[in-house]
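Re: that chain you flagged

S.,

Sorry for the slow reply, it's been a week of failed gels. I finally had a moment to sit down with the sequence you sent. For the record, here it is as I used it:
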Amino acid sequence: MEPKNQPLSGNDLARFSGPGTFMRLPSSNELHKLDVAILGVPIDIGTSWRSGTRFGPKQVRNESAMIRPYNLQTGAAPFDSLQIADIGDLAINTFSLSDSLRIISNSYDAILKNDAVPVAIGGDHSITLPILRSIARRHGPVALVHVDAHADVNDEMFGERECHGTVFRRAYEEGLIQPAKTYQIGLRGTGYSAEDFTEATGWGFQQFPAHEFWGRDLGALGAEIRRDIGDVPTYITYDIDSLDPAFAPGTGTPEISGLTTPQALQLIRALRGINVVGCDLVEVSPPYDTSGNTALTGANILYELLCILPGVTYR
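Prediction finished late last night. Pasting the structure tokens below so you have them in one place:
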């Protein structure tokens, strides 16, 4: 059996040096040998407020150098049982959103053909639509766990029908997701009308506003979602702006009174056991992240997602 890739230890080489991959894992383009492919999608031309998420994948990788392979709290050791590598960034077209979405979808078709679970570092949230198109071609309509301050169900923005605020309306219209197994967690803020928040519930989406969970453990919600999903293939998309700006200020569309970092981990850990077929972490904007704390949080959320993938060893 081929030995499993391990993050480069800080005891072997100082964490401020070494490769710029996620958790300083080996890089690879041999998709057929991987169980999990970590990739960057450095794009921000689909965003509508503050730009900068094109720098997200690089900064999240930089901050991930601090993370060690064993999860002390849960006992998860993802690198002991899964072959994981960083396959680099997708070569998006920085001048064309539509062409970039095509490139993302085509690239994902190649990844999924090799049965690797794709884990993406964004980039703005527009990347999730072409990802879901590929995921649905491979697995059929999936359950969706969407953690975000915003529902992202606009019909269009400035005449554009495919951008970071329209993702899940298009996914619903195209039959990429199962509406009754779509869970939107952390919604809050303001809108133009009540329909901004209620229309999607008419499609079957289950929405969980952030204010309902102030001061509460999200483990129970995660367990409820896990039971509801059963063994249906599931995609998890985690927008960093789901967290309160006190914890994650470096994002393009911040909203006050959001989730806390402990709640983020409680939710993910409670989802252990679902059939995750892909996930992403989006909307980290380093120009608004002067301390690096948002990227550090994003890197840890990605690590926690690795820890709940099917086949992970627990010790």
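What I noticed first: The chain has a mean pLDDT of 95.

Talk soon,
D.
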